[in-house]
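Exercise 7.
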Amino acid sequence: MRAVLPKGEQQRFIETIYHQTGLCWTDIAKVCQVDPKTLRGWRQEKYMMSYEAIKKLHGAFDAPMPTILEIRSEYWHAGKAGIIGAKRRYELYGNPGTAEGRRKGGQKSVENRERFPERYGDGFVIRKQLLIPEKSPLLAEFIGIMLGDGSITDHQVTVTLNKTDDAEYANFIRELIGGLFGIASSIHIDDEDNTCTLLISSMNVIDHLLSLGLKKGNKVAQQVDVPDWIFDNEDFVSSCVRGLMDTDGSVYPHKYKVGGRTYCYTKMCFRNHSLPLLASVERMLSSLDFTPKNDGKQVSLYRQMEVKRYFEEIGTNNPKHLKRYQNFSRA
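Solution. The predicted structure, written as tokens, is:
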């Protein structure tokens, strides 16, 4: 559906979001799930924005809805454009009844679908090109992230985070996804649930993650576990633990009194409802010379020196955890 806005309103709406958010045009286009060229055409008012894109920008950035005069069907212009298009196609590719004409037309169709998927509403899917990442510490960290806050469905890979506390960490994961797979992830903000969800719509990524040992569907029901190949390399183990702790882990102060004096120690724990996953986190930390405690609900590091060594040797890519550790350590 296309939205008809008063002249100049479409440009003002898009540029207001650009100036208020500080995002680049490419990132705004990703929110709309369109090519940057399409966004530029909308900004220049060469053609009408999709109503869906307007709703996405409104929801993602809490931007005021523009004045909409009319909502038109996606193909309102098809009759007139069809005649013009048929003439132009004949000029470019010749008689479509020939083998050469069909080959050229099909090739162009595939190119257009890859560049402008929002223009096609027929359910036809072209798989995105994918870098096949080798097993590495970065891939192991992403596996840990997926086991913590990730999910795989038939059509998407998602990572859901706290919109406020994990905002910086979300940027790290987006860059990690781009570096590993060579594709961009989109982002969905849910203000009601205060969540930020990164979305990868790629069957190739889904297939590759499944081949690495991850599973579709409910992780708790399936009692997911760390893939065996992670344990083949100490760097993989360390990176996977970091991904797990950065998502389902927490850093907290433990206070108690002795002889009228209050003592405060910083502790860490990993919480999850998958018992095999808890056992694997305990195993991984033990292999790295820590002394974790697994009570069946969480795996914890209690010793002050071990928490300190964790941040020095394994570290964190989630600024939330580092800030909490630094604040509690100074307390």
